[in-house]
Amino acid sequence: MVMDHEKQRARYIAGTEGAPPVPPPGGYRGARRQQAPAAGAPLPPTPGAVATLDTEKKPANALGWIALAASVLFALILLGTLVAGGTDILYGVTMLALQLVVVAVIIAALFSPRGRMLGAIALIVTILFNVATVGGMSALQTSASGNYEGVKSDEQKHEEAYPAIKGTDPQQTLSQQSLEEVRAQADVLFADIRARLTAEFGYTWVPVGDEDLRPERNGYGGESMLVEYTSPGWATNEPIQDYAQKLDVMAVIDEVVLEHGLWDLYSFNDPTNSGIDPAMIAKLYGSDDPRTQNTWEYYTENYPDPLRFYANIYDLSNDPDGGFLTARQAQNARTGEPLEGLQLVVIASGVLSEADRAEFEKKLEEYPGFG
Fold first, then answer.
1. Which of 354, 347, 303 lies closest to 179 in space, CA to CA?
2. Other Cβ atoms closer than 10 A to 30
3. Helix (H), strand (E) at residue 66
4. What's the rounded Cα separation, in Å, for the pair 301 and 306?
5. DSSP states of 95-121 as a string?
6. DSSP three-state, residue 342
7. Separation of alpha carbons 267 and 244, rounded Å
8. Please, are residues 347 and 228 in contact by the beta-carbon 8 Å criterion?
9. Which of 95, 170, 264, 345 has its CA 20 to 30 A from that of 185?
10. Cβ proximity of 218 and 370 under 8 Å
């Protein structure tokens, strides 16, 4: 009997070294099999799942709707301020405080299970439209348009309206030549120079360009009532390439400008009397030797009055690489002036029109100590 029991036990464990023994046929005595649920039978819901389903079915609470409405309203306020150009308002304490309130409401909604969805939407709206982003857009718009009125104090606006030029005595402006007087003197000066040069050298003339009036800045961020005047120019149709003839032409012009109360002509291109470094002269005029220069530039003025007179000679015979010709052709395309020859022009800075004199003096009364 014992032997049979041992043989049966040996059969159970044979070839199973290191592994648990297999059960005997029919299983162990008293063992009960667990029945697997039938396929397709629903599992009973857990208590947590039931609670989740019930929560999802419930509508969002008032806190979520308040957060969404607050974020949208705040975005509309920011956009309205942007359209109105109120960059300073966007960065004001009131707007920043209002944004903090909106953010606080959104955070509260995010912590509420029933308001989380609307709170997340409100958060996205606030990220897209907040003081930083809309303020940056407003600053770019202001910079592009040049309208900085909203960020300037009354004192700055007052300074911007200063009618004269900072660093210049307004009384000097009133005592010097007016715009109309400069214009009249330039016309007479040009007429006399043309007549003399035509009589002595047979030159013919063509007008060059139009009169230009450019407002002068006042040094305080605004525009003054003064202008920079550039006269219409005059140019010879004939080239002037002979060195001796150039000197003779400038000598005649010098006589005429002295007759009109201007100072002696001054040569920028001549290194012997201009005081300019020869290397710079060569860069500006094609050479540091007047005999081989492509440009002569002479100048005089009637200081302390504002009229400045320029006489230039352009010479294409002194153009070894063709670069000067290219530059002159480009200038000719812009203004229609001859490629070479003599040109005359007058410029006057900081001049006041006689029509504006009374208003200029009245405005100066608001600026004691300015200048």
1. 354
2. 5
3. helix 62-84
4. 7
5. HHHHHHHHHHHHHHHHTSTTTHHHHHH
6. strand
7. 15
8. yes
9. 170
10. no
pTM higher than 0.85, yes or no?
A: no
CA separation for the pair 309, 282 (Å, rounded): 23
* 229 and 179 Cβ atoms separated by less than 8 Å: yes
- pLDDT tens digit at each of 371 positions of the chain: 555 555 555 555 555 555 556 666 666 565 555 555 554 455 555 555 544 544 455 666 787 788 888 888 878 887 777 776 666 666 677 877 877 888 888 888 888 787 778 878 978 987 887 767 766 666 665 555 555 555 577 888 888 999 999 989 999 999 999 999 999 999 999 999 999 999 999 999 999 999 999 999 999 999 999 999 999 999 999 999 999 999 999 999 999 999 999 999 999 999 988 889 999 999 999 999 999 999 999 999 999 999 999 999 999 999 999 999 999 999 999 999 999 999 999 999 999 999 999 999 999 999 987 86
C-alpha 297/C-alpha 312 separation (Å) is 5
Query: Which contacts (CB < 8 Å, 24+ apart) does range 317-324 have?
Result: 317/239, 317/241, 318/241, 318/286, 318/287, 318/292, 318/293, 318/294, 319/286, 319/294, 324/286, 324/294, 324/295
Cα–Cα nearest to 188, from 257, 237, 248, 264: 257
Which whole-number Å values give the CA distances from 292 to 7, 185, 229, 263, 281, in the listed order?
130, 34, 33, 27, 12
- For every residue of 201-234, which 3-state class applies, written as one string? HCCCEEEECCCEEEEEECCCCCEEEEEEEECCEE
Residue 248 buriedness (CB in 10 A; 0-12 / 13-18 / 19+)? middle
The residue length of the chain stands at: 371
The whole-angstrom separation of Cα 225 and Cα 68 is 53
